[in-house]
Amino acid sequence: MKRTLVMIRHAKSSWANPLQSDFERPLNDRGKHDAPEMGKRLKKLDVVPDLIISSTAKRTKQTAKRIAEETGYDTDKILWEEKLYHCIPSVFEEVIYEVSDKIKTVFIVAHNPGITDFVNQLSPDFTIDNMPTCGVVGAHIDADEWNNFNIAGKKVFLYEYPGKDDNSK
Fold it and tell me: What confidence score (pLDDT) does residue 79 get?
């Protein structure tokens, strides 16, 4: 059975208040624009979540909610996961192992550098230097159960980010 994992880095955050804690930094204007745009792009590609799991940092919460709204996902059903805040790749796996097998497509909204490190482990055919803000990497997982994630075959099928198509105009 094919499952779909979509990893999303939070949108661009504001550095306007230098005294604000990293955890409390909100999205800036660009981030507020990019997150719903990526949600629309995902919906247009027919990549919609059965579950969204997000870090509890302010910018990831704001990103997750905007993407949820555009993909038709109920924002009240977003699962907030504290351990996704600046986590290492193995924590992403822990979170994935806890996903119900009824869920076919899961979105995880989190932070760099862990998210870049994690997506680079998904498939030998896919590597990036840095996951851009509001960047999205989607992978098909060949597994009947999420807790087989580590041993399952994986294939990255999607890499999108705001402005990606700007170079082709």
Answer: 98
- Cα–Cα separations (whole angstroms), residue 45 to 85, 91, 103, 160: 28, 28, 19, 11
Q: What angle do CA 18, 116, 17 make, to 5 degrees?
A: 10
What CATH number is associated with residue 91?
3.40.50.1240
| The token pair that represents 152 in the structure block | 């399952």
Phi, psi angles (nearest 5°) of residue 95: -65, -45
Determine the 3-state secondary structure of 163 from DSSP. Answer: coil
3-state secondary structure (DSSP) of residue 41: helix
Q: Rounded to whole angstroms, how far apart are CA atoms 24 and 138?
A: 27
Quote the number of domains for the chain: 1
CA 37, distance to chain mean position in Å, is 14
Cβ atoms of 73 and 54 within 8 Å: the answer is no
Which pLDDT tens digit goes with each residue over 27-74? Answer: 999 999 999 999 999 999 999 999 999 999 999 999 999 999 999 999
